Amino acid sequence: MRTGRAVVLAATAALTLTACLGPTGGARVAQADASGDGTLRIGLILDNTGPQSFLNAPQLAAAKLAVKEINAAGGHKGKPVELLPETISADTAAQAKALVAAKADVVIGPTDSSRAPAAIDVLSNAKTAIISPANAARGLTSYQSNGYYFRTSAADVAQAPLLVKLAKDSGAATLAVVYEEGSYGKYVSTAVAAAARQSGLGSVAVAGFAPGQAQQAAAAVKAAAPDAVVLVSRAGAQGAIAELNNAGVAGKKLILSDGAVNQYGPGLGSSALDGARGILPGTFASAHFQAELVSVDPGLSDMTFAAETYDAVNLAAIAAAVEQDDAGASIAAGLIGVSGGRVQAPGGAGPSGEATVCKSYQECLDVLRDGKKPDYDGESGRIGFDANGDVSSANYVLYTYGADNTATMSGSETASSNGS
C-alpha cells in the first residue's frame, strides 16, 4: 500500500483562498454555444516533485489508457482525441498557461490542493474545464472558478461519518478526537464531533496539538477514558500515536484519518497500532484495470489516483459527445449531467429523460446513440457532480493494522461527499 494520498494532501493545510468566493453553478449549469475547433485536446497538470513524484506515473498511465480507449471507439466526432505532452512542475500556473497556449479544452489536475488555485485562476479565465483527480481541500468547494472546476475526489470532511462508524462498529459508546492544529485538523475534527453527536456517540474529549507536542492532548484523552479515539493528523501523526501509546491509548482503540494512515512498522513501539483501523480515499483498482494500466506503463508499481484520473478523462470526452462540442465551456456545461448529477441546468444539448448507467466511453456512446442520457460510473465508482463540481459520494478503502504496525486492506465504504 502506498500512502501518497495521505502525504500529498498535506499541503491542504496551507491552502489560502486568494480569489473571492462566489456562488455555485456558473459554466456548470449554463447553456453553452458551440465554439470548439473539432479536436478535443486534453492536458495534464502533473505537479508532484521530490518524494511525491511517484504519483505522476499512475495519473499519466490512466490518462493515456482512457484516451487510447476513446480513440478506439472513434474519438470525438470521428477525430482522434489528443493528449497534450506532459511536463512535471510544482508551478501549476505556468503549466496551465502552457496548456492554454496549446489549446487544451480540458485539463486534468493538479494533485496538490494548495496549488489548485493558481491553476484554476488561469484556466477558468481561459474558459478551460478543469477536473482534479486528487484535490481534497474543503475550501475548494467554494473557490471562484466561474463553474469550470470539478474534482473526482471528495473533500476531506467526507471521511468524518466513516471514522465515527468505525468506532460504533467496534462497540464504542464514547469517543475522543485528537487533532493536529491547522485547517485539515480543524475541519475534519469538527465534522467528526458533529457526526458522533448525530450518531448518538458521546464525545468525551476533543484535544488539539502542534506537531511534536501531543503529550498534553494524549494526557487529556487518557483522563477522559473513551472507548475509541479518532486521530486526525498528517505530519504529526507518528509523534501523536507514540504519545497516545505512552498514555496507554493504543491498538484497537485508535482510528486514523486518511492523513494519519501510513506504514509505520518499527518506527513505533511494538504493537502500538495492533488492531487500529484507518481509511484512505478512493477505491482499490480492479485486477483488470491494473492490468490495463500496466499494459500502458510496464514499470508502473503504484495505482494512486489512477481511477480518478481515468474517470476524469472519460467524463470530459462523454460531456463533449453529449454537447457535440469540444470547447471547455461546453464540457463544463455537460459534466454534471453525464456524471449522474441531479442539478438541473436551464438548457443544454443531449437527450432528456431517465439516465442510463454506462461504465466506459464506448458504452456511454451507445447509450447516447440510443437517444438516452448517459450516466458514467467508472473505476472510482459513482460520481454525480453537484453544483460546486464536487462528487456526491465518497469512496474509501479501509485498512487494519497488525502487531508490526503495518496496515493491510480490510474493506471499503462509501459516504456522502459533504460528510453526512
Tell me, briefly, the overall form.
Answer: elongated
Low-confidence stretches: 1-23
**Total beta strand runs:** 14
Q: What is the helix fraction of residues, given as a range?
A: 25-40%
Helix and strand run: HEHEHEHEEHEHEHEHEEHHHEHEEE
Total number of helical segments?
Answer: 12
Output the radius of gyration: 21 Å
Mean pLDDT: 90
Strand content: 15-25%
- Alpha-beta classification: alpha/beta
Tell me the distance between the termini: 27 Å
Query: Mind describing the biggest β-sheet?
Result: 7 strands, mixed
For the largest beta sheet, what order do the strands appear in spatially? 7-6-8-9-10-13-14
Layout of helices and strands, plus pairs?
Layout: H1 4-8, E1 41-44, H2 56-72, E2 82-83, H3 92-101, E3 106-108, H4 116-125, E4 129-132, E5 149-151, H5 160-169, E6 174-180, H6 183-199, E7 202-209, H7 215-224, E8 228-232, H8 237-246, E9 254-256, E10 277-281, H9 287-296, H10 306-323, H11 328-338, E11 355-358, H12 361-369, E12 373-376, E13 393-401, E14 407-416
Parallel strand pairs: 1-2, 1-3, 3-4, 4-5, 6-7, 6-8, 8-9, 9-10, 11-12
Antiparallel strand pairs: 10-13, 13-14
Helix pairs in contact: 2-9, 2-10, 3-4, 5-6, 7-8, 10-11, 10-12
Could you name the key traits of this structure?
single chain, 420 residues, alpha/beta, 5-stranded parallel beta sheet, 33% helix, disordered N terminus
